[in-house]
UniProtKB/TrEMBL annotation:
It is found in: Cell outer membrane. Pfam families: Plug, TonB_dep_Rec_b-barrel. The keyword Ion transport applies. This is TonB-dependent receptor. Gene3D superfamilies: TonB-dependent receptor, beta-barrel domain, TonB-dependent receptor, plug domain. PANTHER family: COLICIN I RECEPTOR-RELATED, TONB-DEPENDENT OUTER MEMBRANE RECEPTOR. Residues 191-590 form the TonB-dependent receptor-like beta-barrel domain.
Length: 617
Protein backbone atom coordinates (compact mmCIF):
# COMPACT_ATOMS: atom_id res chain seq x y z
CA UNK A 1 0.00 0.00 0.00
CA UNK A 2 1.18 3.52 -0.76
CA UNK A 3 1.14 4.59 2.89
CA UNK A 4 3.35 1.84 4.37
CA UNK A 5 6.40 4.09 4.73
CA UNK A 6 4.40 6.93 6.36
CA UNK A 7 3.01 4.31 8.75
CA UNK A 8 6.50 3.33 9.88
CA UNK A 9 7.34 6.99 10.45
CA UNK A 10 4.14 7.46 12.43
CA UNK A 11 4.95 4.46 14.61
CA UNK A 12 8.36 5.96 15.36
CA UNK A 13 6.73 9.20 16.48
CA UNK A 14 4.13 7.32 18.55
CA UNK A 15 6.80 5.51 20.55
CA UNK A 16 8.22 8.89 21.58
CA UNK A 17 5.02 10.15 23.20
CA UNK A 18 5.08 7.97 26.36
CA UNK A 19 8.56 9.23 27.29
CA UNK A 20 7.36 12.80 26.90
CA UNK A 21 4.18 12.50 28.94
CA UNK A 22 5.07 10.61 32.12
CA UNK A 23 5.11 13.77 34.22
CA UNK A 24 1.72 15.05 33.03
CA UNK A 25 -0.97 15.69 35.62
CA UNK A 26 -3.84 13.24 35.92
CA UNK A 27 -7.19 14.44 34.61
CA UNK A 28 -10.80 13.33 34.91
CA UNK A 29 -11.72 10.70 32.31
CA UNK A 30 -13.56 11.98 29.24
CA UNK A 31 -16.96 10.39 28.59
CA UNK A 32 -18.34 9.80 25.08
CA UNK A 33 -21.80 8.53 24.07
CA UNK A 34 -21.77 8.70 20.26
CA UNK A 35 -19.37 5.78 19.73
CA UNK A 36 -21.83 3.14 21.02
CA UNK A 37 -25.00 5.18 21.85
CA UNK A 38 -24.15 4.50 25.50
CA UNK A 39 -21.95 6.45 27.91
CA UNK A 40 -18.39 5.14 28.14
CA UNK A 41 -14.91 6.44 28.77
CA UNK A 42 -13.36 7.80 25.58
CA UNK A 43 -10.13 5.88 26.21
CA UNK A 44 -12.16 2.65 26.44
CA UNK A 45 -14.11 3.18 23.20
CA UNK A 46 -13.16 0.88 20.33
CA UNK A 47 -14.00 3.46 17.67
CA UNK A 48 -11.61 6.30 16.78
CA UNK A 49 -13.11 9.21 18.74
CA UNK A 50 -12.37 12.84 19.64
CA UNK A 51 -14.20 14.96 22.22
CA UNK A 52 -13.99 18.77 22.12
CA UNK A 53 -15.30 20.45 25.28
CA UNK A 54 -16.38 24.04 25.90
CA UNK A 55 -13.00 25.19 27.20
CA UNK A 56 -11.28 23.85 24.07
CA UNK A 57 -13.85 25.59 21.85
CA UNK A 58 -13.18 28.93 23.53
CA UNK A 59 -9.40 28.51 23.22
CA UNK A 60 -9.48 27.23 19.65
CA UNK A 61 -9.18 30.61 17.94
CA UNK A 62 -11.76 29.41 15.40
CA UNK A 63 -12.98 32.85 14.36
CA UNK A 64 -14.99 31.55 11.43
CA UNK A 65 -17.04 28.83 13.06
CA UNK A 66 -17.55 25.10 13.23
CA UNK A 67 -15.92 24.04 9.91
CA UNK A 68 -12.65 25.76 10.83
CA UNK A 69 -12.59 23.97 14.20
CA UNK A 70 -13.37 20.57 12.67
CA UNK A 71 -10.71 20.97 9.97
CA UNK A 72 -8.06 21.07 12.72
CA UNK A 73 -9.02 17.62 14.00
CA UNK A 74 -7.31 14.38 12.92
CA UNK A 75 -8.79 12.69 9.86
CA UNK A 76 -10.85 15.71 8.70
CA UNK A 77 -10.34 18.03 5.74
CA UNK A 78 -12.52 20.93 4.62
CA UNK A 79 -13.46 22.79 1.43
CA UNK A 80 -15.38 26.06 1.43
CA UNK A 81 -16.78 28.12 -1.42
CA UNK A 82 -15.49 31.51 -0.37
CA UNK A 83 -14.96 31.89 3.37
CA UNK A 84 -17.27 32.35 6.37
CA UNK A 85 -20.90 31.40 5.80
CA UNK A 86 -20.29 29.98 2.35
CA UNK A 87 -21.20 26.42 1.36
CA UNK A 88 -18.78 24.03 3.11
CA UNK A 89 -17.93 20.36 2.69
CA UNK A 90 -16.37 18.19 5.40
CA UNK A 91 -14.30 15.20 4.25
CA UNK A 92 -13.77 12.71 7.06
CA UNK A 93 -11.27 9.91 6.49
CA UNK A 94 -11.21 10.59 2.77
CA UNK A 95 -14.93 10.04 2.25
CA UNK A 96 -17.18 12.33 0.25
CA UNK A 97 -18.90 15.34 1.79
CA UNK A 98 -22.14 13.35 2.03
CA UNK A 99 -20.50 10.43 3.88
CA UNK A 100 -20.61 12.12 7.32
CA UNK A 101 -23.79 12.84 9.27
CA UNK A 102 -24.39 15.64 11.74
CA UNK A 103 -26.42 15.09 14.91
CA UNK A 104 -27.54 17.84 17.28
CA UNK A 105 -28.62 16.55 20.70
CA UNK A 106 -29.35 13.17 19.10
CA UNK A 107 -31.34 14.58 16.15
CA UNK A 108 -30.18 14.19 12.54
CA UNK A 109 -29.97 17.50 10.66
CA UNK A 110 -29.06 18.30 7.07
CA UNK A 111 -30.36 18.50 3.52
CA UNK A 112 -31.95 15.48 1.86
CA UNK A 113 -31.58 17.22 -1.52
CA UNK A 114 -27.78 17.63 -1.38
CA UNK A 115 -27.05 14.97 1.26
CA UNK A 116 -24.87 17.31 3.35
CA UNK A 117 -25.30 19.41 6.47
CA UNK A 118 -24.99 23.21 6.61
CA UNK A 119 -21.87 23.10 8.78
CA UNK A 120 -21.17 26.79 8.18
CA UNK A 121 -24.43 27.88 9.86
CA UNK A 122 -23.87 26.22 13.27
CA UNK A 123 -22.37 28.84 15.65
CA UNK A 124 -19.76 27.78 18.19
CA UNK A 125 -21.36 29.99 20.85
CA UNK A 126 -24.26 27.53 21.15
CA UNK A 127 -22.12 24.40 21.55
CA UNK A 128 -21.25 22.74 24.87
CA UNK A 129 -19.43 19.71 23.48
CA UNK A 130 -18.59 18.03 20.17
CA UNK A 131 -18.05 14.29 19.73
CA UNK A 132 -16.40 13.00 16.56
CA UNK A 133 -16.57 9.29 15.66
CA UNK A 134 -14.48 8.28 12.63
CA UNK A 135 -15.28 5.21 10.56
CA UNK A 136 -18.48 3.48 9.43
CA UNK A 137 -21.40 4.06 11.81
CA UNK A 138 -24.48 2.97 9.84
CA UNK A 139 -24.96 0.06 12.28
CA UNK A 140 -25.64 2.74 14.91
CA UNK A 141 -27.08 5.68 12.97
CA UNK A 142 -28.28 4.39 9.61
CA UNK A 143 -27.82 5.83 6.15
CA UNK A 144 -24.97 8.18 5.18
CA UNK A 145 -22.64 7.43 8.13
CA UNK A 146 -20.05 5.88 5.78
CA UNK A 147 -17.06 7.86 7.03
CA UNK A 148 -18.18 9.04 10.44
CA UNK A 149 -20.50 11.00 12.71
CA UNK A 150 -20.24 14.41 14.32
CA UNK A 151 -22.58 15.00 17.25
CA UNK A 152 -23.08 18.44 18.79
CA UNK A 153 -24.49 18.95 22.27
CA UNK A 154 -25.96 22.38 23.00
CA UNK A 155 -25.27 24.31 26.19
CA UNK A 156 -26.79 23.00 29.42
CA UNK A 157 -27.31 24.45 32.88
CA UNK A 158 -26.68 23.46 36.49
CA UNK A 159 -26.11 25.05 39.88
CA UNK A 160 -26.94 28.61 40.91
CA UNK A 161 -28.37 30.92 38.21
CA UNK A 162 -25.71 32.73 36.26
CA UNK A 163 -25.41 34.95 33.20
CA UNK A 164 -22.52 34.79 30.76
CA UNK A 165 -21.76 36.97 27.76
CA UNK A 166 -19.21 37.59 25.01
CA UNK A 167 -18.60 40.47 22.61
CA UNK A 168 -15.86 40.83 20.02
CA UNK A 169 -14.78 42.40 16.74
CA UNK A 170 -12.03 41.92 14.20
CA UNK A 171 -10.81 41.95 10.62
CA UNK A 172 -13.15 41.86 7.60
CA UNK A 173 -15.77 43.69 9.65
CA UNK A 174 -16.25 40.66 11.88
CA UNK A 175 -18.50 41.17 14.90
CA UNK A 176 -19.88 38.70 17.41
CA UNK A 177 -22.08 38.95 20.49
CA UNK A 178 -23.66 36.19 22.57
CA UNK A 179 -25.26 35.88 25.99
CA UNK A 180 -26.99 33.21 28.01
CA UNK A 181 -28.51 32.32 31.33
CA UNK A 182 -28.08 28.89 32.92
CA UNK A 183 -28.83 27.25 36.22
CA UNK A 184 -30.52 24.40 38.00
CA UNK A 185 -31.76 22.88 41.20
CA UNK A 186 -31.89 19.33 42.48
CA UNK A 187 -34.79 18.64 40.09
CA UNK A 188 -34.68 21.36 37.43
CA UNK A 189 -31.98 22.41 34.96
CA UNK A 190 -32.27 25.13 32.34
CA UNK A 191 -30.26 27.08 29.77
CA UNK A 192 -31.23 29.76 27.28
CA UNK A 193 -28.88 31.72 25.06
CA UNK A 194 -28.75 33.81 21.92
CA UNK A 195 -26.02 34.98 19.58
CA UNK A 196 -25.28 37.09 16.53
CA UNK A 197 -22.27 37.07 14.19
CA UNK A 198 -21.48 38.92 11.00
CA UNK A 199 -18.58 39.63 8.67
CA UNK A 200 -18.17 41.86 5.65
CA UNK A 201 -15.93 39.22 4.07
CA UNK A 202 -14.17 39.56 0.74
CA UNK A 203 -15.18 38.55 -2.74
CA UNK A 204 -16.25 34.92 -2.58
CA UNK A 205 -14.57 34.14 -5.91
CA UNK A 206 -11.15 34.81 -7.39
CA UNK A 207 -10.66 36.75 -10.59
CA UNK A 208 -9.97 33.53 -12.52
CA UNK A 209 -13.35 32.02 -11.62
CA UNK A 210 -16.52 32.19 -13.70
CA UNK A 211 -18.99 34.66 -12.20
CA UNK A 212 -16.28 36.65 -10.38
CA UNK A 213 -17.45 39.93 -8.89
CA UNK A 214 -14.93 42.14 -6.99
CA UNK A 215 -17.48 43.26 -4.38
CA UNK A 216 -17.49 42.02 -0.79
CA UNK A 217 -19.79 39.10 0.03
CA UNK A 218 -21.00 39.51 3.62
CA UNK A 219 -22.49 36.92 5.94
CA UNK A 220 -24.57 37.23 9.08
CA UNK A 221 -26.09 34.69 11.44
CA UNK A 222 -28.57 34.91 14.32
CA UNK A 223 -28.95 31.96 16.67
CA UNK A 224 -30.78 30.83 19.78
CA UNK A 225 -30.74 27.61 21.80
CA UNK A 226 -32.39 26.26 24.91
CA UNK A 227 -32.27 23.23 27.17
CA UNK A 228 -34.74 22.24 29.88
CA UNK A 229 -34.64 19.17 32.11
CA UNK A 230 -36.88 18.10 34.98
CA UNK A 231 -36.30 15.11 37.25
CA UNK A 232 -39.70 13.74 38.24
CA UNK A 233 -38.17 11.24 40.65
CA UNK A 234 -34.96 9.34 41.07
CA UNK A 235 -34.25 7.70 37.68
CA UNK A 236 -37.04 9.53 35.80
CA UNK A 237 -36.40 12.65 33.72
CA UNK A 238 -38.20 14.76 31.14
CA UNK A 239 -36.28 17.09 28.85
CA UNK A 240 -36.48 19.43 25.88
CA UNK A 241 -33.84 21.03 23.66
CA UNK A 242 -33.85 23.35 20.65
CA UNK A 243 -31.43 25.16 18.37
CA UNK A 244 -32.41 27.69 15.72
CA UNK A 245 -30.16 29.67 13.38
CA UNK A 246 -30.93 32.07 10.56
CA UNK A 247 -28.32 33.35 8.14
CA UNK A 248 -27.98 35.60 5.12
CA UNK A 249 -25.09 34.95 2.79
CA UNK A 250 -24.04 36.97 -0.26
CA UNK A 251 -22.13 35.29 -3.08
CA UNK A 252 -20.81 35.76 -6.62
CA UNK A 253 -22.90 34.45 -9.48
CA UNK A 254 -24.00 37.41 -11.58
CA UNK A 255 -22.62 40.90 -12.18
CA UNK A 256 -24.62 42.27 -9.25
CA UNK A 257 -24.30 42.56 -5.49
CA UNK A 258 -27.89 41.30 -5.12
CA UNK A 259 -27.03 37.59 -5.16
CA UNK A 260 -27.75 36.14 -1.74
CA UNK A 261 -29.52 33.35 0.07
CA UNK A 262 -31.38 33.08 3.33
CA UNK A 263 -30.73 29.90 5.28
CA UNK A 264 -32.34 28.46 8.41
CA UNK A 265 -31.44 25.49 10.59
CA UNK A 266 -33.93 24.43 13.25
CA UNK A 267 -33.93 21.36 15.46
CA UNK A 268 -35.94 20.52 18.56
CA UNK A 269 -36.52 17.40 20.61
CA UNK A 270 -38.45 16.11 23.62
CA UNK A 271 -37.29 13.13 25.62
CA UNK A 272 -38.34 10.95 28.53
CA UNK A 273 -35.64 8.91 30.26
CA UNK A 274 -36.95 6.31 32.73
CA UNK A 275 -35.17 3.72 34.85
CA UNK A 276 -37.64 0.85 34.66
CA UNK A 277 -35.59 -1.45 36.88
CA UNK A 278 -32.17 -1.24 38.53
CA UNK A 279 -30.53 -2.44 35.30
CA UNK A 280 -32.99 -1.26 32.62
CA UNK A 281 -33.25 2.33 31.31
CA UNK A 282 -35.68 3.41 28.60
CA UNK A 283 -35.20 6.62 26.58
CA UNK A 284 -37.97 7.87 24.29
CA UNK A 285 -37.07 10.82 22.07
CA UNK A 286 -39.15 12.68 19.50
CA UNK A 287 -38.20 15.72 17.48
CA UNK A 288 -37.87 17.49 14.17
CA UNK A 289 -35.14 19.21 12.18
CA UNK A 290 -35.47 21.67 9.30
CA UNK A 291 -32.81 22.69 6.78
CA UNK A 292 -34.12 25.60 4.68
CA UNK A 293 -32.59 27.61 1.86
CA UNK A 294 -34.04 30.46 -0.17
CA UNK A 295 -31.92 31.93 -2.96
CA UNK A 296 -32.24 35.31 -4.66
CA UNK A 297 -30.50 36.48 -7.83
CA UNK A 298 -30.86 39.60 -9.93
CA UNK A 299 -32.43 37.56 -12.75
CA UNK A 300 -34.78 35.74 -10.34
CA UNK A 301 -36.25 38.39 -8.03
CA UNK A 302 -38.91 36.00 -6.70
CA UNK A 303 -36.36 33.66 -5.15
CA UNK A 304 -36.33 29.85 -4.98
CA UNK A 305 -36.90 27.63 -1.95
CA UNK A 306 -35.25 24.33 -0.99
CA UNK A 307 -36.29 22.71 2.28
CA UNK A 308 -35.77 19.42 4.10
CA UNK A 309 -37.94 18.48 7.08
CA UNK A 310 -37.06 15.39 9.14
CA UNK A 311 -39.49 14.03 11.75
CA UNK A 312 -37.68 11.61 14.06
CA UNK A 313 -38.70 9.16 16.76
CA UNK A 314 -36.29 6.95 18.71
CA UNK A 315 -37.02 4.54 21.55
CA UNK A 316 -33.89 3.03 23.08
CA UNK A 317 -33.50 0.48 25.87
CA UNK A 318 -30.24 -0.05 27.74
CA UNK A 319 -30.28 -3.28 29.73
CA UNK A 320 -27.49 -4.42 32.00
CA UNK A 321 -26.90 -8.15 31.54
CA UNK A 322 -24.91 -10.60 33.67
CA UNK A 323 -22.17 -10.02 31.08
CA UNK A 324 -22.09 -6.65 29.36
CA UNK A 325 -24.88 -4.27 28.38
CA UNK A 326 -27.56 -4.73 25.73
CA UNK A 327 -28.81 -1.85 23.61
CA UNK A 328 -32.08 -2.33 21.69
CA UNK A 329 -33.79 0.49 19.81
CA UNK A 330 -36.43 1.37 17.25
CA UNK A 331 -36.29 4.48 15.08
CA UNK A 332 -38.70 6.11 12.68
CA UNK A 333 -37.51 8.81 10.30
CA UNK A 334 -39.72 10.67 7.83
CA UNK A 335 -37.91 12.95 5.40
CA UNK A 336 -39.79 15.48 3.29
CA UNK A 337 -37.88 17.37 0.61
CA UNK A 338 -39.08 20.38 -1.37
CA UNK A 339 -37.16 21.91 -4.26
CA UNK A 340 -39.36 24.65 -5.68
CA UNK A 341 -40.17 24.01 -9.31
CA UNK A 342 -38.42 20.63 -9.29
CA UNK A 343 -39.98 18.15 -6.85
CA UNK A 344 -41.91 17.81 -3.60
CA UNK A 345 -41.68 14.35 -2.05
CA UNK A 346 -40.86 12.27 0.96
CA UNK A 347 -39.71 8.92 2.25
CA UNK A 348 -40.01 6.98 5.50
CA UNK A 349 -37.39 4.82 7.19
CA UNK A 350 -38.20 2.33 9.94
CA UNK A 351 -35.17 0.92 11.74
CA UNK A 352 -34.44 -1.75 14.33
CA UNK A 353 -31.03 -1.97 15.97
CA UNK A 354 -29.23 -4.08 18.53
CA UNK A 355 -25.95 -3.60 20.30
CA UNK A 356 -23.90 -5.37 22.93
CA UNK A 357 -20.80 -4.10 24.71
CA UNK A 358 -18.89 -6.05 27.31
CA UNK A 359 -15.59 -6.18 29.12
CA UNK A 360 -13.74 -9.34 30.16
CA UNK A 361 -10.68 -8.33 32.11
CA UNK A 362 -8.28 -6.94 29.51
CA UNK A 363 -10.74 -7.66 26.66
CA UNK A 364 -13.54 -5.41 25.33
CA UNK A 365 -16.13 -6.34 22.70
CA UNK A 366 -18.68 -4.21 20.84
CA UNK A 367 -21.23 -5.71 18.43
CA UNK A 368 -23.92 -3.78 16.55
CA UNK A 369 -26.48 -4.65 13.89
CA UNK A 370 -29.14 -2.49 12.27
CA UNK A 371 -31.83 -2.97 9.64
CA UNK A 372 -33.28 0.04 7.83
CA UNK A 373 -36.47 -0.38 5.82
CA UNK A 374 -36.70 2.54 3.39
CA UNK A 375 -39.94 3.25 1.52
CA UNK A 376 -37.87 4.38 -1.47
CA UNK A 377 -35.42 1.54 -2.11
CA UNK A 378 -36.23 -1.27 0.32
CA UNK A 379 -34.23 -2.81 3.14
CA UNK A 380 -30.59 -2.50 4.14
CA UNK A 381 -28.75 -4.31 6.94
CA UNK A 382 -25.43 -3.13 8.36
CA UNK A 383 -23.16 -4.41 11.09
CA UNK A 384 -20.16 -3.58 13.24
CA UNK A 385 -17.78 -5.78 15.25
CA UNK A 386 -15.05 -4.27 17.39
CA UNK A 387 -12.48 -5.71 19.78
CA UNK A 388 -10.14 -4.05 22.26
CA UNK A 389 -7.27 -5.52 24.27
CA UNK A 390 -5.42 -3.85 27.14
CA UNK A 391 -1.82 -4.77 26.34
CA UNK A 392 -0.38 -3.06 29.41
CA UNK A 393 -1.23 -0.27 31.79
CA UNK A 394 -2.24 2.66 29.58
CA UNK A 395 -1.61 0.83 26.27
CA UNK A 396 -4.54 -0.57 24.29
CA UNK A 397 -5.04 -2.32 20.93
CA UNK A 398 -8.29 -2.04 18.97
CA UNK A 399 -9.57 -3.62 15.77
CA UNK A 400 -12.91 -3.49 13.99
CA UNK A 401 -14.82 -4.25 10.82
CA UNK A 402 -18.00 -2.52 9.79
CA UNK A 403 -20.38 -1.95 6.91
CA UNK A 404 -22.20 1.24 5.98
CA UNK A 405 -24.26 2.75 3.20
CA UNK A 406 -25.43 6.07 1.75
CA UNK A 407 -28.94 6.68 0.49
CA UNK A 408 -29.26 8.54 -2.84
CA UNK A 409 -30.32 12.15 -2.37
CA UNK A 410 -33.57 13.56 -3.73
CA UNK A 411 -31.58 15.59 -6.25
CA UNK A 412 -29.82 12.45 -7.49
CA UNK A 413 -33.13 10.63 -7.78
CA UNK A 414 -35.66 13.16 -9.02
CA UNK A 415 -34.21 16.51 -10.13
CA UNK A 416 -35.74 17.27 -13.58
CA UNK A 417 -33.34 16.60 -16.43
CA UNK A 418 -30.74 15.21 -14.04
CA UNK A 419 -32.11 12.62 -11.61
CA UNK A 420 -31.91 8.85 -11.98
CA UNK A 421 -34.76 7.05 -10.17
CA UNK A 422 -32.96 3.68 -10.57
CA UNK A 423 -30.04 4.55 -8.27
CA UNK A 424 -29.07 2.09 -5.56
CA UNK A 425 -27.47 3.01 -2.21
CA UNK A 426 -23.69 3.24 -2.02
CA UNK A 427 -22.03 0.59 0.13
CA UNK A 428 -18.89 0.62 2.26
CA UNK A 429 -16.89 -2.05 4.05
CA UNK A 430 -14.24 -0.83 6.48
CA UNK A 431 -11.41 -2.53 8.37
CA UNK A 432 -9.19 -0.79 10.88
CA UNK A 433 -6.72 -1.37 13.68
CA UNK A 434 -5.46 1.06 16.27
CA UNK A 435 -3.12 1.61 19.21
CA UNK A 436 -4.02 3.99 22.02
CA UNK A 437 -1.68 5.00 24.82
CA UNK A 438 -2.94 7.24 27.63
CA UNK A 439 -1.51 8.05 31.01
CA UNK A 440 -1.78 10.98 33.38
CA UNK A 441 -3.59 13.23 30.91
CA UNK A 442 -1.25 12.45 28.00
CA UNK A 443 -2.22 10.31 25.03
CA UNK A 444 -1.02 9.03 21.68
CA UNK A 445 -3.11 7.18 19.11
CA UNK A 446 -2.38 5.45 15.83
CA UNK A 447 -5.13 4.22 13.50
CA UNK A 448 -4.75 2.38 10.20
CA UNK A 449 -7.90 1.95 8.10
CA UNK A 450 -9.05 0.58 4.75
CA UNK A 451 -12.53 1.47 3.46
CA UNK A 452 -13.82 -0.06 0.23
CA UNK A 453 -16.77 1.76 -1.37
CA UNK A 454 -18.88 0.06 -4.05
CA UNK A 455 -21.82 1.28 -6.17
CA UNK A 456 -20.40 4.77 -5.75
CA UNK A 457 -22.64 7.41 -7.27
CA UNK A 458 -20.92 9.78 -9.69
CA UNK A 459 -22.26 12.34 -12.15
CA UNK A 460 -21.05 12.26 -15.74
CA UNK A 461 -22.07 13.70 -19.07
CA UNK A 462 -22.97 11.16 -21.72
CA UNK A 463 -21.53 12.52 -24.99
CA UNK A 464 -24.07 10.58 -27.06
CA UNK A 465 -27.07 12.21 -25.35
CA UNK A 466 -25.52 15.39 -23.96
CA UNK A 467 -27.24 14.73 -20.62
CA UNK A 468 -25.56 14.76 -17.23
CA UNK A 469 -26.89 12.27 -14.74
CA UNK A 470 -25.76 10.28 -11.67
CA UNK A 471 -25.10 6.53 -11.89
CA UNK A 472 -23.93 3.63 -9.68
CA UNK A 473 -20.83 2.79 -11.68
CA UNK A 474 -17.73 3.38 -9.59
CA UNK A 475 -15.69 1.79 -6.85
CA UNK A 476 -13.35 3.64 -4.52
CA UNK A 477 -10.69 2.56 -2.07
CA UNK A 478 -9.93 4.91 0.81
CA UNK A 479 -7.06 3.88 3.05
CA UNK A 480 -4.78 5.74 5.39
CA UNK A 481 -2.98 6.28 8.67
CA UNK A 482 -3.96 8.74 11.35
CA UNK A 483 -1.67 9.67 14.24
CA UNK A 484 -2.58 12.02 17.09
CA UNK A 485 -1.10 12.84 20.46
CA UNK A 486 -1.04 15.31 23.29
CA UNK A 487 0.93 15.88 26.48
CA UNK A 488 2.22 18.46 28.93
CA UNK A 489 5.94 19.17 28.93
CA UNK A 490 7.77 21.77 31.05
CA UNK A 491 4.53 23.65 31.61
CA UNK A 492 3.53 23.63 27.93
CA UNK A 493 0.45 21.82 26.60
CA UNK A 494 1.30 20.12 23.30
CA UNK A 495 -1.05 18.58 20.78
CA UNK A 496 -0.30 17.23 17.30
CA UNK A 497 -1.79 15.11 14.57
CA UNK A 498 -0.77 13.91 11.11
CA UNK A 499 -2.74 12.02 8.47
CA UNK A 500 -1.58 10.06 5.42
CA UNK A 501 -4.41 9.36 2.99
CA UNK A 502 -4.76 7.44 -0.24
CA UNK A 503 -8.29 8.01 -1.60
CA UNK A 504 -8.76 6.82 -5.17
CA UNK A 505 -11.29 5.78 -7.75
CA UNK A 506 -10.38 2.12 -8.32
CA UNK A 507 -11.64 2.10 -11.93
CA UNK A 508 -9.42 4.94 -13.14
CA UNK A 509 -6.83 5.26 -10.33
CA UNK A 510 -7.72 8.97 -10.11
CA UNK A 511 -7.59 10.66 -6.70
CA UNK A 512 -10.92 11.62 -5.18
CA UNK A 513 -11.37 15.41 -5.47
CA UNK A 514 -10.29 17.88 -2.78
CA UNK A 515 -8.58 15.31 -0.57
CA UNK A 516 -4.90 15.82 0.23
CA UNK A 517 -2.56 12.88 0.70
CA UNK A 518 -1.01 14.53 3.75
CA UNK A 519 -2.44 16.87 6.36
CA UNK A 520 -1.60 17.69 9.94
CA UNK A 521 -1.63 20.17 12.78
CA UNK A 522 0.51 21.14 15.76
CA UNK A 523 -0.57 23.20 18.75
CA UNK A 524 1.37 24.47 21.77
CA UNK A 525 0.02 26.61 24.60
CA UNK A 526 0.97 27.65 28.10
CA UNK A 527 -0.71 29.26 31.06
CA UNK A 528 1.34 31.61 33.24
CA UNK A 529 -0.65 33.10 36.09
CA UNK A 530 -3.48 35.01 34.40
CA UNK A 531 -2.29 34.65 30.83
CA UNK A 532 -2.91 31.70 28.52
CA UNK A 533 -1.29 31.90 25.08
CA UNK A 534 -0.51 29.56 22.24
CA UNK A 535 0.23 29.04 18.58
CA UNK A 536 -1.01 26.52 16.07
CA UNK A 537 0.27 25.31 12.73
CA UNK A 538 -2.05 23.62 10.23
CA UNK A 539 -0.76 22.05 7.02
CA UNK A 540 -2.59 20.53 4.05
CA UNK A 541 -0.92 18.97 1.00
CA UNK A 542 -1.74 19.48 -2.66
CA UNK A 543 -4.85 17.95 -4.22
CA UNK A 544 -7.12 18.22 -7.26
CA UNK A 545 -10.42 20.08 -7.28
CA UNK A 546 -12.29 17.81 -9.69
CA UNK A 547 -12.17 14.71 -11.86
CA UNK A 548 -13.40 14.64 -15.48
CA UNK A 549 -14.61 11.44 -17.13
CA UNK A 550 -13.70 11.10 -20.78
CA UNK A 551 -16.48 8.87 -22.07
CA UNK A 552 -19.88 7.40 -21.27
CA UNK A 553 -18.16 4.18 -20.18
CA UNK A 554 -16.25 6.07 -17.47
CA UNK A 555 -13.26 3.85 -18.18
CA UNK A 556 -10.81 6.71 -17.69
CA UNK A 557 -10.74 9.89 -15.67
CA UNK A 558 -8.58 13.01 -15.63
CA UNK A 559 -7.64 14.95 -12.50
CA UNK A 560 -7.90 18.70 -13.08
CA UNK A 561 -7.56 22.10 -11.41
CA UNK A 562 -4.75 21.35 -8.98
CA UNK A 563 -4.95 23.07 -5.59
CA UNK A 564 -1.57 23.80 -4.01
CA UNK A 565 -0.64 22.74 -0.51
CA UNK A 566 -0.59 25.31 2.26
CA UNK A 567 0.41 25.95 5.85
CA UNK A 568 -1.41 28.28 8.25
CA UNK A 569 0.05 29.80 11.41
CA UNK A 570 -2.43 30.98 14.05
CA UNK A 571 -2.00 32.41 17.56
CA UNK A 572 -4.27 33.15 20.50
CA UNK A 573 -4.04 34.77 23.93
CA UNK A 574 -6.39 35.06 26.90
CA UNK A 575 -5.91 37.35 29.90
CA UNK A 576 -8.03 36.73 33.00
CA UNK A 577 -8.69 40.23 34.34
CA UNK A 578 -10.68 38.69 37.22
CA UNK A 579 -11.95 35.15 37.82
CA UNK A 580 -15.12 36.15 35.91
CA UNK A 581 -13.84 38.56 33.23
CA UNK A 582 -11.29 37.87 30.52
CA UNK A 583 -9.88 39.53 27.43
CA UNK A 584 -9.24 37.35 24.38
CA UNK A 585 -7.37 37.83 21.16
CA UNK A 586 -6.58 35.61 18.22
CA UNK A 587 -4.70 36.04 14.97
CA UNK A 588 -5.27 33.65 12.09
CA UNK A 589 -3.17 33.06 8.99
CA UNK A 590 -0.37 35.21 10.42
CA UNK A 591 1.79 34.72 7.33
CA UNK A 592 -1.06 35.91 5.07
CA UNK A 593 -0.97 32.71 3.03
CA UNK A 594 -3.01 32.81 -0.18
CA UNK A 595 -4.60 29.39 -0.68
CA UNK A 596 -7.66 27.58 -2.01
CA UNK A 597 -9.76 24.80 -0.53
CA UNK A 598 -12.02 24.88 -3.62
CA UNK A 599 -10.86 26.00 -7.06
CA UNK A 600 -11.54 29.67 -7.77
CA UNK A 601 -12.83 30.55 -4.30
CA UNK A 602 -11.14 32.96 -1.89
CA UNK A 603 -10.13 32.20 1.69
CA UNK A 604 -9.37 34.70 4.49
CA UNK A 605 -5.94 36.31 4.57
CA UNK A 606 -4.21 37.47 7.75
CA UNK A 607 -6.87 38.51 10.26
CA UNK A 608 -7.30 39.29 13.95
CA UNK A 609 -10.19 39.15 16.39
CA UNK A 610 -10.47 40.57 19.92
CA UNK A 611 -13.18 40.04 22.49
CA UNK A 612 -14.22 40.29 26.12
CA UNK A 613 -15.88 37.40 27.95
CA UNK A 614 -17.91 37.39 31.17
CA UNK A 615 -18.18 33.83 32.47
CA UNK A 616 -18.77 33.42 36.24
CA UNK A 617 -17.29 30.18 37.57
Amino acid sequence: MTFIRPTLAALAVATAFPAIGLAADAEQPVVVVTASRQAQRADEAIADVTVIDRAQIEQSGASFGLPELLARQPGIQMATNGGPGKSTSIFMRGGNGNHTILLIDGMRIGSATTGTASWQDIPLSQIERIEIVRGPASALYGADAMSGVVQIFTRKGQGAPRIDAFAGAGSYGAREVSAGVTGGTERLSYALRGGYTETEGTSAKMRKATGYNPDHDPYRNTSMSGNLGYRLADGHELGATFLATEGRNFYDGEASFNNYNNSAQRVWSLHSRNRLTAGWTSTLRFGQSVDSYEGFMLSKPAGSTIRTTQDQLAWQHDIRLPVGTLMAAYENLHQKALSEGAFDGGRTVNSALLGWTAGFGAHTVQLNARHDENSQYGGKTTGYAGYGYQIANGLRFTGSIGSAFRAPTFNELYYPGFGNANLKPENAYNKEIGLLWSQGGSFASLTVFRNRISDMIVTFRNPSTGRSMPSNVREALVQGVSLAGGTRLAGFDLEAGIDFLDAKDRDSDASLPRRAKQSGHFRVSRKVERITAGVELQGVGGRYDAVSFSSSSLATATERDRLGGYGLLNAFVKYAVTPDWSLEGRANNLLDKQYETAYGYNTPGANVFFGVRYAPR
